[in-house]
Amino acid sequence: KYGSSEGVLKGGYVIAGKPNEKPEVILMATGSEVSLMLEAHDALEKEGVKVRSVSMPCMELYRQQSQEYHESVLPSDCRARVSIEAATSHSWGDFTGLDGEHV
After folding, report:
1. Which residues contact 19 (CB under 8 A, 6 or more apart)?
2. Sheet of strand 13-16: strand arrangement
3. Where does 1-103 have alpha helices with state H?
4. For 22-74, what is each residue's pLDDT tens digit?
5. Which long-range contacts does 3-11 make (Cβ < 8 Å, 24+ apart)?
6. CA-to-CA distance for 80 and 51, rounded, in angstroms?
7. How far apart are CA 8 and CA 56, in angstroms?
8. Which residues lie across from 102 on neighbouring strands?
9. DSSP state of 92
10. How many CA atoms lie within 13 A of 100 on its CB side?
11. How many whole angstroms from its chain centre is CA 17?
């Protein structure tokens, strides 16, 4: 059901969603919020939304990856993005973009 955790070595990876499907929305989380993100993922998927969920355990390491890898995880043509983190929204701005939201 969930993607391989090998991507943890790259700082961020697709944990849920169809790999070859263009997502309508991307959910992003780290740490304890990942389980909440996956609950939201399942609910959206049941409503027919094409959703991708990304676990981002290390933003600094993710930033070091190639543009090609970034595009495979967070495709630039999907601007509907939501980051989920209880503590702060500060570090998510680079990934949510101008059209994204933080909860």
Report:
1. 3
2. 13-16, 51-55, 25-29, 81-84, 101-102
3. 33-46, 59-63, 67-73, 93-96
4. 999 999 999 899 999 999 999 999 999 999 999 999 999 999 999 999 999 99
5. 7/55, 7/73, 8/55, 8/57, 8/58, 9/61, 10/61, 10/62, 10/65, 10/69, 11/56, 11/57, 11/58, 11/59, 11/60, 11/61, 11/62, 11/63, 11/64, 11/65
6. 10
7. 8
8. 83
9. G
10. 23
11. 10
Separation CA 11–CA 19 (nearest Å): 18
Dist. CA 41–CA 80, nearest whole Å: 14
pLDDT of residue 29: 94
Tokens for 48? 């027919």
Tokens 């989380």 -> residue = 29
Residue 92 amino acid letter: W
